Amino acid sequence: MLHSLVRPRNRSCARVPERPDSKRRRAHGQGYDARVLFRETFPAGAFACNCSVLACDTSKEAIIIDPGGEVDRIRGIVEHHGLSVKAVIHTHAHLDHIYCTRKVVENHGGSICLHKDDLFLYDGIEMQASMFGWQVDSVLPVDRFLEDGDSITFGEQAALTLHTPGHTPGSVCFEVKDGDKHIIFAGDTLFRRSVGRTDLPGGNSKQLLRSIQTSLYTRAPDSLVVPGHGPNTTIEEEAAKNPFVTASRAL
Ligand SMILES: [Zn+2]
Ligand SMILES: [Zn+2]
User: Fold this and answer.
1) I need a surface site. Which of 70, 121, 159, 186 has the fewest CB within 10 A?
2) Which ligand is nearest to the CA of 118?
3) How many angstroms separate the CA atoms of 190 and 238, rounded?
4) How far apart are the CA of 168 and the centre of ligand 1, in A?
5) pLDDT in tens, 135-161
6) What is the pTM of this model?
7) Residue 83 to residue 150: CA distance in whole angstroms
């Protein structure tokens, strides 16, 4: 079950994940489903990168995807729900997706995870920042290099890594289970009716289209897609309506 989507800043309207003994679940008569997922997604930083905090509802173990900003908001979520951050994971290493990784890890711990093919961007954070006239701290070392098919576990939940190069060489998407549905965190690979740009260092437009067709359009059609920026969509919607890459287009 999904507890929340994009949520206003006012924490007074925050919904707390239901407890195992909640009346509603008991009413279903099927016992407690330990695989219920807690999620908060919100735009973070100057480029409004969609950052997500996911947690296993029973263990309170959590992962954070793409902390591009909102360090205080992340702290508020972690403290309010008593979460233990196991990993900080990245769809890719553009500045807007890694901008606050160091601060978040210093605040909450967790392993820094990234595909190795984006290490040149991660280690080049100062160079990326200088293009905008920004000053940034150096990065902390990557703890785990992600490969296609890797699982990042948090409690009884897991995020599956899908390597989807094209926007950057080390771009990945993460798929998690939400009850009997799936959520795909697509980074800057696939957006609602758009795709990621490929004119930046390491970008490759053919590779991007191939990644979307072979690694994303092949997922469950009703999977919810949470892109790196902008509104959510679904796999079937994009396969039918995305003007840049349709499911039927041969590569
Ligand atoms: Zn990007
Ligand atoms: Zn981005």
Assistant:
1) 70
2) 1
3) 9
4) 7
5) 899 999 999 999 999 999 999 999 999
6) 0.85
7) 23
